[in-house]
Amino acid sequence: MPLTPQSLEVIRGDAVQIDIDIDDGAGALDLTGASVSFIVDMLEKPADTSTQVLTVTGAITNAVGGLASFTLTSGNTSLASRVYYWAVRVTYNGDTSYTVAVGTLGVVEEVG
Fold first, then answer.
1. Pairs from 43-49 (Cβ < 8 Å, separation ≥ 24)
2. Cβ neighbours, 10 Å, residue 40
């Protein structure tokens, strides 16, 4: 199933919570026994992990309902102001991994 990119924007240095509803096209993806990661990269299609700037492990808030939450601290969002690319990866049994959501993350300076 093709992923529809989603745009997110944060103010540099602000703590934010990102809630994700993970769907496999037929309904909520069962996250029972899985772990979830929110990965931020400088490149849209990186060749490797050398351009990753952030990886945050999320909390599964409703496994059967496919709901996960990621808390980005002020330290996490203290990145240079620019557009980054993010992905949410679901990992089962520690080794089988799937990208389930993608998009852009704009980090902007606080106004004022």
1. 43/85, 44/85
2. 21
Query: Please, what sign has the CA dihedral across residues 77, 79, 82, 88?
Result: negative
Q: Please give the full DSSP string across 83-103, using - where no structure is assigned.
A: EEEEEEEEEETTTEEEEEEEE
The whole-angstrom separation of Cα 85 and Cα 93 is 26
In the block, tokens 């769907």 appear at 23
Buried b (16+ CB within 10 A) or exposed e, 24-34: eeeeebebeeb
CA pair distance 32, 3, nearest whole angstrom = 22
Give the predicted TM-score (pTM) of the model.
0.92
Other beta carbons less than 10 A from residue 62's beta carbon: 12
**Which of 106, 99, 109 minimizes the C-alpha distance to 38?**
99
Task: Give dist(CA 70, CA 32) in Å, integer.
Answer: 17
How many Cβ atoms sit within 10 Å of the Cβ of residue 60? 19
Give the model confidence (pLDDT) of 41-71 as tens digits. 999 999 999 999 999 999 999 999 999 999 9
